[in-house]
User: Fold this.
Amino acid sequence: MINSDQQNKLNELCTIFLEENSKLNLSAFRTQENCFIGNIMDCVAVVDAPEFKKIMEGESIKILDIGTGGGFPLLPLAILYPNSKLIGLDSVQKKVDAVKRITEKLSLSNVDVISGRTEELGRDENHREKYDIVTARALAPLNTLLEYASAFVAPNGLVIAWKSLNIDKEIKDSLMARAELSCQLEKSFEYNLGEKWGKRQLLIFRKRAPLNKKYPREVGIPKKKPLI
Assistant:
């Protein structure tokens, strides 16, 4: 349940984000209504997923948002879970700088944003298998996304991907990646944004074992030659 203070903070996020978006193309949603529903409400749908809620009951939860772009779902989750530590990762420095400015204007003390490539930071001992949850929204097909994310999430942690409903082939094509990266599809959580937005889903993967040291592969390889 979102309380009134959180609701006000989410509204403030929407306003500040749109100001940044007018200077730098972070999102196609350029009105208050479209941004709030298409970005913010789309992100906070995850709070109703039982697997997510169970992990968030713990203490000192660490979340990494890969390919954070304009800060979604990074910033809405930071507002809703002030006692957790959230880090946004993006390879585009201009986007990282924009999210930092938004974070400062919102006075969010539980957020950090870093610039880098997932393939490189996934081998960094400061980040490798250090996170309880890794999120990814509009990032890549599942077989590529899981290679990126599995390097960061700790065993028994979750990888959560925002996806449309009609991705049967993408799910099938991810079978090899799931097996190779020890990421089991635990749940497809459907939600409805209503009206013109319709139904969407969160694919929730549970990492069952430590990642083989050969992953992630070199920069660019997971995208060019996905596990299939």
